[in-house]
Amino acid sequence: MIERVVKEIADEMRQRPDRGEVASYIPELARVDPGAFGLAVIDAEGNVAAAGDADVPFSIQSISKVFTLTLALGKAGDRLWRRVGREPSGSAFNSIVQLEHERGIPRNPFINAGAIAVTDLILSGHQPREALGEILRFMQFLSDDANITIDRAVAASEQRTGFRNAALANYMKSFGVLENPVEFTLGVYFHHCAIAMTCKQLAMAGRFLAHSGINPATGALVVHPDRAKRINAVMLTCGHYDGSGEFAYRVGLPGKSGVGGGILAIAPGKASIAVWSPGLDAAGNSHLGRVALEALTKRLGWSIFGV
Ligand code: GLU
Questions:
Q1: pTM for the full model?
Q2: How far is 202 from 204, CA to CA, in rounded Å?
């Protein structure tokens, strides 16, 4: 049943003319084929249903923020929430205005400022290379795939042009929110955003969030069930920037988008889902990714709010 629905949706998405706009503010991302579409669903038993370009690696960008949040909570526990809030922002992913009002404390860990603060916490006490290695190894461990790598061209492209993120980081530094040199924190941030993964790998990596913190493939406890619940809550309320309300309304699952066009969505107790379509809507979220997830949750009755 899941397999049939996944194939149906991938076929439907291939035909759609409305594909959104591929992100171009990171020049390297503008080279991606807007016609690409991939979808992968891994259920509780570990069955993989995949279609389209589900084996093609793409830039996970802000989806990495789910995993850096998980790592940072592991290091700092609830002390993390002194450095970053957990309320939806209602403003753009790279907004600086809110940061001024809130004296350098970012609204949540998924807007850029919040994710930069989380990266800074992971970096403290380490060299940038070690911190980045830790993040990459965590992704490889969760996906059970040692071949996951960082796309250096994408990282370099953002490093050359990420003036707004540099502004956010410097602004937070002025409030004492960042502990490390700004260029180190930004370097690690740009590189973890540039991790390249396929839909299948990403759906694998998200499984612990769908199953109360346990990776059902190995039975290993990745995080305590209480923590998995809370990460899902932040994904639901903040995972799509100022499009988070619309995503909850239409899809009804915790999810996190990235400007590479990917979305990781979690159907608690049921499945981990990854979708990729590079064209974005005005809020910087994958347009067809959201449309596909809306169709999927509707056909399978998977919205956390009921049918
Ligand atoms: N690396 C991107 C940035 O910082 C991530 C944004 C996103 O994926 O939404 O602008």
A1: 0.97
A2: 5
